[in-house]
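I hope you will forgive my troubling you with a question about protein structure. The record follows directly beneath this note:
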Amino acid sequence: MAVTKETVLRTSRLARLDLGLGLSEAEAEARIEVFREQMDEIVRHMDMLAQADCAGVEPWHSPLDQVDGPRPDEPEKAAEENELLDGAPERLADFFVVPRIL
């Protein structure tokens, strides 16, 4: 399936993108053509993947053979207050000093 200019324009409208914003008509047409070529390449690649023979291949939900579960809920010793504050770039008494944000 070849991607047409109309497909690009419809897709950009659905995505609420103005491909010609601030461009002359010729520049907008060139940008649309670039998008058309890129979208066409993506569709061709997906068509190529669709032709792969996957008969007898089991679905693979994870590349890892291990199953992660929740870790045991065990109390751990928290870091000491001074250890945490020692890593701060700047501190004032028992507080981190951060830039003011208004």
User: Anything to note?
Assistant: The radius of gyration is 27 Å. The longest strand covers residues 91-92. The mean pLDDT is 88.
